[in-house]
Amino acid sequence: xxxxxxxxxxxxxxxxxxxxxxxxxxxxxxxxxxxxxxxxxxxxxxxxxxxxxxxxxxxxxxxxxxxxxxxxxxxxxxxxxxxxxxxxxxxxxxxxxxxxxxxxxxxxxxxxxxxxxxxxxxxxxxxxxxxxxxxxxxxxxxxxxxxxxxxxxxxxxxxxxxxxxxxxxxxxxxxxxxxxxxxxxx
Amino acid sequence: xxxxxxxxxxxxxxxxxxxxxxxxxxxxxxxxxxxxxxxxxxxxxxxxxxxxxxxxxxxxxxxxxxxxxxxxxxxxxxxxxxxxxxxxxxxxxxxxxxxxxxxxxxxxxxxxxxxxxxxxxxxxxxxxxxxxxxxxxxxxxxxxxxxxxxxxxxxxxxxxxxxxxxxxxxxxxxxxxxxxxxxxxxxxxxxxxxxx
Lengths: 186, 196
Fold this sequence. Notes:
The structure holds two protein chains of two kinds. Chain A is an all-alpha fold. Chain A is built from nine helices and no strands. The radius of gyration of chain A is 19 Å and the shape is globular. By secondary structure, chain B is an all-alpha fold. Chain B contains ten helices and no strands. The longest helix of chain B has 22 residues, at 135-156. Classes of the chains: A mainly alpha, B mainly alpha. At the A-B interface, α1, α2, α3, α4 and α5 of A face α1, α2, α3, α5 and α6 of B.
């Protein structure tokens, strides 16, 4: 089964924009990713917080107007915690994450190309071992496709406002630090 | 399409204003790169457009599982055929595979446009820590790291883009748990590797 051509073109176009923007954001660079993990460079957090705030306002606006659907992934603790920790360790070793390693390949970085071979291998290994790890991981709690406002029965817009305040405050602190020590990439 | 236009100035303004502060000249961003706030806002907009036009979350790691299946079908067709995941999700060129292809191209164009193309084998930051002659360990570690990243992303059901951005912006409980674990695992490993 192959997606219809229009969907393929849409995927390619989305990827083109995503890759272009990731490269311009310097997140396909080893020191930027490792620097973030070591909390010495904050480029990744700045980009992610801004994307989350801007994206959540827009996506939830569209959802409330009935123009889009949510795609929440289930809160399955076993897979999320074990997978998340493995992912983090892998990211520190690789110096890229799955999206940005591809961007780094486009930039020409040879180590990222090796890493990407590893990424494809790892994806296959996970599928291969599916019968082994799935029963084990499924024995952990699964809260289903739940969001933070649903879990806490609070207002969705309150959460978005909170995120906005957090991101704006964080941005203010970052830029104040930068102003005091020019030339740093914090 | 109306909300896209209505919210454009409102959602952009605080970040763009900050990006335009006098302390942040374009010199601060080498290689023709852009302010992280502008990049973040653009990714936020792109996430919304992806929800709207493709009815998909923006994520990179599913494409890898498909790609791996396509390669698996060439290398070990019988074995690949026997895997349940590939019976349920037939490995074929789909939206997510095209996304990965697009990211390579898009990053190439951006790097070319910014004069930022490189054929670097050893990241200088790695060389400072592990020595100029540590290319073989670097490639081995990159390969192992790639395996772990993909394995972890498949177990968790997403990566930095699928959980970290698309999932987190939907305020998904699972995605925020994943995001926290990404950083916890990363910090622990990076502290061990780069502790001086």
